Amino acid sequence: MGSLGLVTPQAMHFAEPLLLQSGAQLGDYTLMYETYGTLNADKSNAVLICHALNASHHVAGHYATPKSAGWWDNMVGPGKPVDTDRFFVIGINNLGSCFGSTGPMHVNPATGKPYGAAFPLVTVEDWVAAQARLADRLGIEQFAAVMGGSLGGMQALSWAIMYPDRLRHCIVIASTPKLSAQNIAFNDVARQAILTDPDYHGGDFYEHDVVPKNGLKVARMIGHITYLSNDDMAEKFGRKLRNAAETNDYNFDFGIDFEIESYLRYQGDKFSEYFDANTYLLITKALDYFDPAREHGGDLTKALAGTKAQFLVASFSTDWRFSPERSREIVEALISNRRRVSYAEIDAPHGHDAFLLEDARYMNVVRAYYNRIALEVA
Amino acid sequence: MGSLGLVTPQAMHFAEPLLLQSGAQLGDYTLMYETYGTLNADKSNAVLICHALNASHHVAGHYATPKSAGWWDNMVGPGKPVDTDRFFVIGINNLGSCFGSTGPMHVNPATGKPYGAAFPLVTVEDWVAAQARLADRLGIEQFAAVMGGSLGGMQALSWAIMYPDRLRHCIVIASTPKLSAQNIAFNDVARQAILTDPDYHGGDFYEHDVVPKNGLKVARMIGHITYLSNDDMAEKFGRKLRNAAETNDYNFDFGIDFEIESYLRYQGDKFSEYFDANTYLLITKALDYFDPAREHGGDLTKALAGTKAQFLVASFSTDWRFSPERSREIVEALISNRRRVSYAEIDAPHGHDAFLLEDARYMNVVRAYYNRIALEVA
């Protein structure tokens, strides 16, 4: 397996307004994207990769700065499961993100100031509609596959529902057909932490030259707990004390006693330094709102009735955020529709985060599936 | 089953200093407590009830104000599982609490100002030592039983370890021999929310005439999610919209869309109005620190080797905070020590909170156990 090496993000501007599910409208907007590999002559080898909460169009390869590898660099590249020697892979940054596509940090043409909290709430379906326009511009009528993990999997599923003729394969990993009350609850606590941080300034913190760092940190810590499995946390951290090498005793203060505290606070700090609070708020709302069965009286089978793609659905045994049970709901609804679907429930210790991590069985499942797709392309 | 009717809290002052596990010392202190029923002539029918995170000495009966029933009023009273016609029951408020026993809101004799964050961190073992002094004063050499749920169960377990001759029965419900990394993680996020609230003022918010309401609210929301089961939340709230009767559509803003958001924010608001932030911090630390096996190289069997009580251990199937597995660790360590132990794993939908709720099977288990204890007393 080789490396993609240096990759370069591109920007595409859209002057046509985008009507959003909320009824609001984005007058014009820019989408950031990256491509890897070469589009073949009949444009049949394109793969779209959709990102999850905190990721971006930078799926694979790296930038000139160190430590800038793409978030799915283990999955996408020459000779990798999604083989860029055979496929033309597109990574795209969603609207409302803080990584380049039009979002809350950009200037609202109506006011001349950053959108802030005035950036319209966008849904998974809105993202997919915007992605379809980018595909139009690139001349891609039909993707060989649309693929994503977690929130990215919701986008892949929406592609299959909204544009059944525009993808041959739909790959949905560690995802769910809708958030549970518990999932929503965790998102709402995270949002409350941000919204009540005095440095949030009702979303207009940019002009105050601050960021709601504490709120974002707490939000990320909560999120992070739900990404890891209980067992994995127990094994990696357990009750290990940070000062184990020294006193190996409790500090009896509100500083850091346990390694797990140190780890989570570090993750929270790091996140609050690069992620935008308004983006966090709106992406968690997009998660909460996703529920394609909703307009079919809650019937997922009906929601998936118009799909034409073939499906690969994968879940991880220790994922308690979007458990295997949630993936099986998708699989069962597809089977009820007599869709062709492969399902892999991967026994992996790493909880929800497993979809981003190296795991031989997981990688082999995806590789085998893409080998099959490649036969159709060649 | 009758009601205890009006009950009256009592205060007991202790002038003898209490040396704490941290090495700090409380010069003098007051403990609030309540008693129900009558202590018999040989003082053999006393039962001590230990409280969990947000509760108090007000276990049963009610005060003059409405809605002031004790937190375990379904469990303790005339004809109830812990029958006050037969037992003399004591509810006690722990040190550091905000319900009357000496805590962060009280005046620190060293400074003449409220302790605030300067109140020394107290451990489960410290609480038990203070409870033992109250028992001394009441002339109770040996309890018929010491009983508690969750954090209260940890105190009961500590009684069995610290004062093996002072209790005949130890009743440990919905508890654990130590917090997991995930448990600690949730506690630490909650603490971070409080500590970073600008209204916390390093713990001295009393003199600023504010409370860190937002931090406490977020802390409580996080806690509350872990008290409920995933299934129970799904059944009670699911994805129900708060405006279901009106538009039954998303609001596309950061207000309240889902019933679960409304419920949790309400719980958070309510809690932040009556609970003290410093108390929340120190009680979560007591939870984190509890680990009786620690000084025995992590061997719980060794930690319980000196116990003499008989045990009732109970857990609830959907409790994912302190799962049945954690209770079974206690049971197995007791069995290894050839202690007499009854174990009930109750199939109940309500998660960790089940230990506070009415459930016929649960109540019957406790009732049957106390019937057995009553035979020894009579």
Automatic annotation (TrEMBL), chains A, B:
GO MF terms on file? homoserine O-acetyltransferase activity; homoserine O-succinyltransferase activity
Metabolic or biological pathway, per its Swiss-Prot or TrEMBL entry: Amino-acid biosynthesis; L-methionine biosynthesis via de novo pathway; O-succinyl-L-homoserine from L-homoserine: step 1/1
Per the record, its GO cellular-component terms are:
cytoplasm
Q: Residues at site: Important for acyl-CoA specificity? A: R321
* Reactions catalysed according to its record: L-homoserine + succinyl-CoA = O-succinyl-L-homoserine + CoA
Q: List the keywords (alphabetical).
A: Acyltransferase, Amino-acid biosynthesis, Cytoplasm, Methionine biosynthesis, Transferase
Q: What is its EC number?
A: 2.3.1.46
| Major site of localization recorded for this protein | cytoplasm
Residues annotated for substrate binding in this entry = R220, D353
Q: What class of enzyme is it?
A: transferase
Report domain AB hydrolase-1 positions: 45-358
InterPro entries given in the database record: AB_hydrolase_1 (IPR000073), AB_hydrolase_fold (IPR029058), HAT_MetX-like (IPR008220)
Annotated compartments: Cytoplasm
**Biological processes annotated in GO:** homoserine metabolic process; methionine biosynthetic process
Which Pfam family, any one, appears in the UniProt record?
A: Abhydrolase_1
Query: Which residues are the active-site ones?
Result: S150, D319, H352
| Family listed | Belongs to the AB hydrolase superfamily. MetX family.
Q: What job does this protein perform?
A: Transfers a succinyl group from succinyl-CoA to L-homoserine, forming succinyl-L-homoserine.
State the oligomer form and interacting partners.
Homodimer.
How is this protein named in the record?
Answer: Homoserine O-succinyltransferase
Q: What lineage, starting at the top, does this entry show?
A: Bacteria, Pseudomonadati, Pseudomonadota, Betaproteobacteria, Burkholderiales
